[in-house]
Amino acid sequence: MLGPIILVLFAIATGIVIWRHNGGVGRFRERGWSLFILVIGALYSLAILLNMPIPNPTDWISAVLAPIYKPILAWIEEGM
Hints:
Layout: H1 2-21, H2 28-49, H3 57-79
C-alpha cells in the first residue's frame, strides 16, 4: 500500500516542478500538456500498482476500425 502513496507524492512533486519551470509568459500550453501527460502516466502507473485490468490498445484500434475493414475484407474474399 506504500507504493501508490509514494507514486502520488512523486507525481505531485514533479507537477510542482513543471508548473514552476513553465511559468513564464506564453508557456501555458507547454505547462498544460506536460501536466496532462504526467497525470496520464501517473494514472497508468497507479492502475498497474493496484493490479487493475488494463485493456490492450490494439483491441481498441480493432474495435474502431472493424466497421471499415470487414466489408473490404469480405469484398476481397468474394473476388478470389
